Amino acid sequence: MAQNNATKASDGAGKQHAGVRQVWRESPTAVKSLLAGTMINRLGGFVQVFMVLYLTHRGFSDTQAGAALGVYGGGAVLGTLIGGGMSDRLGPRLTIVSTLLGSAVLLPCVLYLDNYWAILAVIGVSGAASMAYQPASTSVISHLTPTERHVMIFAMGRLAINLGTTAAPLLGAALVKISWDFLFWGEALAVVIFSTVVATTLPHVAPDTAGPADDGAGDGGKAPRSSYLAVLADRRYLMFLLAMFVSSVIYIQHISALPLTVRHLGMGVEVYAVLIALNGFLVIACELLVAKVVQRWRIRTAVIIGVLLTGIGMSMYALPWGLAALVIATLVWSLGEIIGYPSLFFAYPAQAGPPGLRGRYLGASNALYGLGSAIGPFIGVMIWNRFQEGLWIGCGIVGLIAGAAAWGGVRPKAETADGATDRADGEDQEGENRRGGTGGSGTADAEIRTAT
Q: Which end of the chain is less crowded, N or C, counting CB atoms within 10 A of the terminal residue's CB?
């Protein structure tokens, strides 16, 4: 029996420290299909990128085109909340398939509408439908993947997203040269392919969402059953959401305020393009390699380091070192993104919620990230126009606040839903060992500590 316990501990350590190839090879087909489908979906994500150009091409004003893009973003934020609730109630498979197919049907309708308000309505609903699948997808991946491999598997998910979003504008530009219509039909086709893959590979009922939701966080389990009010009753998770929201506001400044800084320094647009390309290259080339190390850390450590490095890196744009400051700052916040974001945006929200509320916990985190990304540019440009480099100093200060919120908001593993499951499993194993006359509880405890 002692030998069996030693073997089990060895196997557990191997799983915890698994490399990229092993994690991919041993992942279920459903997880692989979701990762592949996500890349296909992002590769066909043309409409949001080219929406402003398309609407101005049709004769609408710049203001109308910009408003339409905002409506799409607002619909996406709302869609993640709706998708989280649907995932808990209907199951991830039905949620993903139905919302994706709804988006595929709505997108081409824009081509045949002339009334601006009708176009806005369709764009808003399609934006919601196109993003509603995310909480459900993350829920399935987290449920079918051992907790100790969450960082690595979600790093793979981010790689799929980044590869797709990097190539989509190039492919979209080629389609535009043929016809603007191909943008909408092309994205609809990608969405249909994704939904087909999901329908044929995911289980009909995910066990993770079948349980009751009355074990959620809150005041003694009194939070309403299957409701976002239960998420709001979880005060520690609200602190985590604050950290996520602030981090997303800071992070989006590399798109909104950084080009203004580059121009202010008298440098050309090619410098800004190189900085963005540098970030993309580092994330795509290094995130999986770094995840092999970060997956051994406590998830709270990864989140806090990622949040702090993002704020510190952005603050370094205020340094009076010219091009050197721009490059160093980009390297620092890119490192923060690589270290912390698989845990911040995916792994921890998936672990924090109890089974019957996991979709809503994920929906809330996705919505806060989307909201921060939507209002961040307005806040950043407004502050930049008044204080210039003061914006970047402010990013550093606010980043420290976000780090403190992450410290208070991210529970140790033993207090998360997955931690409770692991603890229960450990207690069951300990009981079996005692009945068998052995003392193997130390091994089980060691496994839990290593996985945190």
A: N
Is the distance from CB of 340 to CB of 307 less than 8 angstroms?
yes
366 and 273 fall within a common domain: yes
pLDDT of residue 380: 92
Residues 390 and 426 in one domain: no
Evaluate if residue 339 carries a pLDDT over 60: yes
Distance from chain centroid for Cα 399: 19
How far apart CA 233 and CA 286 sit, in angstroms, is 38
Assign residue 223 a region (left: φ > 0; alpha: ψ between -120 and 50; beta: otherwise).
Answer: beta
Average pLDDT taken over every residue of the chain: 84
Taking the complete model, does pTM exceed 0.85, yes or no?
A: no
Domain range for 134: 22-204
* Count of domains forming the chain: 3
Question: How far is residue 208's CA from residue 224's CA, in Å, rounded to a whole number?
Answer: 19
Instruction: Estimate the crossing angle of helix 133-144 against helix 92-106, to 10 degrees.
Output: 150
Is there a single domain that holds both residue 171 and residue 270?
Answer: no
Given a contact cutoff of 8 angstroms between Cβ atoms, the answer to whether 99 and 81 are in contact is: no
Residue pair 157/120 in contact (Cβ under 8 Å)? The answer is no
Q: Each residue of 70-107: pLDDT tens digit? A: 899 899 999 999 999 999 889 999 999 999 999 999 99
Residue 106 Cα distances to 78, 100, 425, angstroms: 17, 10, 46
Joined together, the tokens standing for residue 208 give: 């993770």
Confirm whether 225 is domain-assigned: no
Structural tokens at position 318: 């205020």
